[in-house]
Amino acid sequence: MRRTVRAATTLAVAVATLATAGTLTSMASSDDTAEHLTHWAVAPQKPVTPQTDQQDAYNKANGRPLPTPELLQPTLDAKLADYRAKPKNSLQGNYECGASDVLADLSHRWIKEFEKEYPKVHIAVNPPYAGSLGALELIKGNLDCVFVSRELKPTDVQGFHDAFGYDPLSIPISGGSYRHFGFLDSVGFVVNKDNPIDKLSFAQLDAALSTTRNRGGAAVRTWGDLGATGEWADKPVHIVGIQPWNGFEEFVRQRVLGSGGKRGEWRPGAASGSTPADPDVRWEKTVFNIAKDVEQDPYAIGYTGMAYVDRPVKVLSLSQEAGGPAYAPTYENVASANYPLSRLTYLNVNKRPGERLDPVMEELTRFILSKQGQRTVGDQQAFLPLRSGQAASGLKALDDAP
Questions:
Q1: Is the model's pLDDT at 171 over the cut of 70?
Q2: Where is the composition biased (Polar residues) (predicted)?
């Protein structure tokens, strides 16, 4: 595995939720040309609020309560491989694993099904349910695996590397949710509803957001630099982001600003309420105010989880490559893993390079990545099942000897 943070495999993300006054670029397939763009007018999500201390305590002890399922549900990818179990008594042993609060339920479901195949295997996933705590316990050698609902923090990866001399193996095990609050919803870029821009590429976003510009090109400072014409051409691009470190911020940094193995660096800004180093960049402490900031500033662009789009703003279609197909964060595009800012959950294990993983942990991973394991994801109706290509990438990472 590559040192420090690596780009996650592509998966499903979010939906554009706009007020009647706003528009949302959307298509189930790609939005390659302006003629094909469709505008939706749909109500924003209900506002969400931070978890209380009491809710956090409950979640750590019991796992986060499951959200109300979306009416739409994805079908399993028919190309997912069937799981072929080994003889029942071929595996045995007691194992200790950890999980973040939003993966407590799903991890227990997977393990229950796995232990039916191997009755001599017992895997405990006990509270406290917190991915960051689990990652630290993995570094200490106290856990055999950790189910985490986001990419590991760079400090967690570095801490593991310092302890063992190599990175942990992080394998995607499910898609994130579509737009469920608190369940790894997909990430979207939003602009003011009056903004004429409908779609952007990762290279354009990187040129606007970063100082490193790992994807090449000149720095973006005006909306004209991003393709706007007329009265918008000379208007400044106002960046609204989330103050590092934050899961949303790290995900965008890895997926959009990072390229060619190089980590991206944000344009300098300041926290809300203070004097910014760059007057066009504003950092919020959390994701909750991003949509509101963009609604109130006609020249703003920001990134947010789709569960937090609670104002009449426009959600952009995105393309990974300049000139490539642009996908809107519709349910179909997220569930099919076409939308490029879909998110993933991960199983993290200690696998020494050049050696096989512990046989029980390896077989558990193979089960999770199988059609049967991903059916468990679909049955829960919170997260989205992996596509066959994503599962195949996970199996390859499991088999590869660096």
A1: yes
A2: 48-57
